[in-house]
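Take a look at the protein record below and flag anything odd:
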Amino acid sequence: PIHFSRFEGMTPEESKPLFDTLVAHATGPEVTCRFRWKNGSVAMWDNRCT
């Protein structure tokens, strides 16, 4: 669930196609990581560029 209304200077209808494209890119398998947790697992990530 993402809260979004519009891009500045655009109507919600104009914003939707661009927003949908950006969400599809940001959630695609080529830019996401899946991790199966096991006892003792450690995961680290860098939020400076998110």
In short: The longest helix spans residues 12-26.
